[in-house]
Amino acid sequence: MQPVLSIRGLSKSYKGGLQALKTVDLDIQKGEIFALLGPNGAGKTTLINAVCGIVTPTTGVITAAGYDTRKEYRAARSLIGLVPQEMHIDIFETVWAVTTYSRGLFGLPANNAHIEKTLKDLSLWDKKDEKLQALSGGMKRRVLIAKALAHEPEILFLDEPTAGVDVELRRDMWNLVRKLRDKGVTVILTTHYIEEAEEMADRVGVIAKGELILVEEKKTLMKKLGKKQVNFELAEPLGALPEGLSGWDLQLADQGRRLEYTFDTTADRTGVASLISRMSELGVQFKDLETKSSSLEDIFVSLVHTPKSETAKELQR
Length: 317
Known about the structure:
Blueprint: E1 5-13, E2 19-28, E3 33-37, H1 44-51, E4 59-64, E5 67-68, H2 73-77, E6 80-83, H3 95-105, H4 112-121, H5 137-149, E7 155-159, H6 167-182, E8 186-190, H7 194-200, E9 203-208, E10 211-217, H8 218-225, E11 227-234, E12 250-253, E13 258-264, H9 272-281, E14 286-293, H10 296-304, H11 308-316
Parallel strand pairs: 3-8, 3-9, 6-7, 7-8
Antiparallel strand pairs: 1-2, 1-4, 4-5, 9-10, 11-13, 11-14, 12-13
Helix pairs in contact: 3-5
């Protein structure tokens, strides 16, 4: 199947020597929700801006639904919606006017039914006649999303769409994104809220220092790199780990009252049973235990602090 968005050899360098992107290759399929994760300054927004024609790449070719985004800019851009981080909107216009004008910018005829549905989906319908200056920050963010959807794009970029907004908007966004995916719209999401990627994404890409260090199915990624932890609540606190437990990856916590054991979920043997047996032999008793699985946030943090070569080894295991 031909990808709806294809990026080949994309790089971006600035005159001062900053290399914002380093030879990025990426394919995204139609109807996919793709989460692009990375710390501040990693290159997420530069990548989006290159696809949308806001930034001119140094090298590389980008196609959207088969259209070259540089050679066939108008055709490609008409398929793309963008919700930017920054709010560049006329605060003296009404919600309705801003949204309908955005549709007209792409040369499309008026479609009041589509605009009405979009505003209702974003809980903006009762605000349609209000000027943007009277809206809260969260409501203005909703208007940005409505603007991006006004021309019915096939590919939607959400660049930190819920940064600094309330939980209600975040939930509304999640529901809207799922509805769009069900209609075949491709959604590329950048976020600092790892739970958004964990909740919605089909695949996850991790970018650090301008380099795309990993692209993987979310479930596969969590299976390959996920860890589990068993926490033992000890009957008596320990001042130090007994020498006889040195064969396990153990940490003392809570002033010696808790013993933490971390293990690889993909290993043939977890080592939990042998650990419990050894603890019993050494007289280390526990009164309770609990297990905890790694979250996507745990995996993300470990990836951006691990050399790419080491990450590749982990994924090949």
